[in-house]
Amino acid sequence: MTQVSEPMFAIETVGMTKRFGTCTAVDELDLRIPRGTVFGLIGPNGAGKSTTIRMLMGLSRPTCGVVKVLGEHVIDCPTTRKARIGYVPETPSVYRWMKVDEAVRFCRSFYDTWNDELCSRLKTLFELNGEKVVGSLSKGSLAKLGLLLAISPEPEVLILDEPTAGLDPLVREEFLDGVLAEICRRPQTVFLSSHTLGDVQRLADSVGILHEGRLLVSSSTDQLLASTKRLRAVLRDGASPALAPPGTIWQGSEHREWSLTVHGFSESTIEFLRRDGSVEHVEVLDLNLEEIFKDFIKGRRLSA
Predict the structure, then answer these.
(1) What are the residues whose beta carbons fall under 8 Å from the beta carbon of 182, sequence distance 6 or more?
(2) Which of 174, 191, 176, 178 lies closest to 41 in space, CA to CA?
(3) pLDDT at 158 exceeding the cut of 70
(4) Tell me, what DSSP letter sits at residue 135?
(5) Burial of 202 (0-12, 13-18, 19+ CB in 10 A)
(6) Residue range 171-200: mean pLDDT, rounded
(7) Distance between terminal CA atoms of the chain?
(8) What is the DSSP letter of 196?
(9) Which long-range contacts (CB under 8 A, 24 or more apart) does 67-73 make?
(10) Strands 38-42, 189-193: pairing kind
(11) Measured between alpha carbons, how far is 130 from 119 in angstroms, rounded to an integer?
């Protein structure tokens, strides 16, 4: 009997596009996310992150392009394959009239892979009262319940849309230290969309920056941090900023100081700045993911 090999990519999109009338929410998005990795999708409000996630879940049909999860076209994906995908929307969808324990039992009945021990541990961690009615839960507790219901079946792909929204700082830290750390050690793929960029930098193996529906950059997190630098150049008296080096995503100047953020930085970048004699001194600074994200977006807005 021939054994069917699992696809290399847990999530793969080619030219994925979504239009609403004349508005293009997602524009020819190409993603290839290897199995067993954590991918962080970041972008400002309205960038198309939630629309992307809805297409990955098969909840919204793309206008054009290919969308595959676990090797299957998501629109035609059989129910058995969809059961291998966990999803936490920004606003969890749970029957409000059920008690917490009833919601757990209801969801448990759909999964052969449900992990009772993990479910019990998460319920304790999140301090969820099994007798409370879902409709009476706070926003934070409802978010915790949504996470519990998505994680307990131990899905092969876990798609999280703002997973820590509504969680207080302590529980958020426990969630990041415990739950996601445990998931990341297993052969599972996590697709994470979040505005908390410190969390993304800490957890994601790779990251994509989305702006106005287009992917500005997709890279391993370490490579993005290593190759994107802030340059602080001091200009000679009377000199003006010269031509910006290749890879400049943002720049600004004040008096004799010329600041630039360069993606794809190397020693040749400094040589480029010095070649016309207008630059007296160059300082190279490391940036975190939040600073890189802000400069990508600011640069796009300035050039628009």
Answers:
(1) none
(2) 191
(3) yes
(4) G
(5) middle
(6) 77
(7) 57
(8) -
(9) 67/12, 67/13, 67/16, 68/7, 68/9, 68/11, 68/12, 68/13, 69/10, 69/11, 69/12, 69/157, 70/6, 70/7, 70/10, 70/156, 70/157, 71/6, 71/7, 71/9
(10) parallel
(11) 12
Using alpha carbons only, give the angle 58, 60, 65 rounded to the nearest 5 degrees: 80
Distances (CA, A) of 61 to 18, 23, 137, 168: 8, 15, 32, 35
Residue reference for tokens 């807005």: 301
Q: Taking the C-alpha atoms of 128, 134, 140 and 141 in order, what is their torsion angle to the nearest 10 degrees? A: 0
Q: State residue 155 phi and psi, 5-degree precision.
A: -65, 155
Question: 122 Cβ partners below 8 Å, 6+ apart?
Answer: 144, 147, 148, 151, 152, 179
State how far the Cα of 126 lies from the Cα of 111, in Å rounded to an integer.
Answer: 22
With H, G, I as helix, E, B as strand and everything else as coil, classify residue 94.
coil
Helix, strand and coil in the chain, % to nearest 5: 35, 30, 35
Type of residue found at 207:
V
SS3 letters for 227-243? HEEEEEEEECCCCCCCC
- Considering only CA atoms, which of 268, 258, 255, 264 is closest in space to residue 296? 264
Report how far apart, in Å, the C-alpha atoms of 220 and of each of 136, 195, 297 are: 41, 18, 19
Tell which residue, 3, 4, 6, has the closest CA to residue 35. 6
The alpha-carbon radius of gyration of the chain (Å, integer) is 22
CB 86 within 8 A of CB 153: yes
Question: Do residues 260 and 245 touch, judged by C-beta distance below 8 A?
Answer: yes
DSSP structure string for 152-193: TT--SEEEEESTTTT--HHHHHHIIIIIIHHHHTTT-EEEEE
Backbone angles phi, psi at 251, to 5 degrees: -155, 155
3-state SS assignment for residue 264: coil
Average pLDDT of the segment spanning 25-32:
95
The model's pLDDT over 270-284, given as tens digits with 9 standing for 90+, comes to: 999 888 778 888 999
Q: What percent of the chain has pLDDT over 90?
A: 51
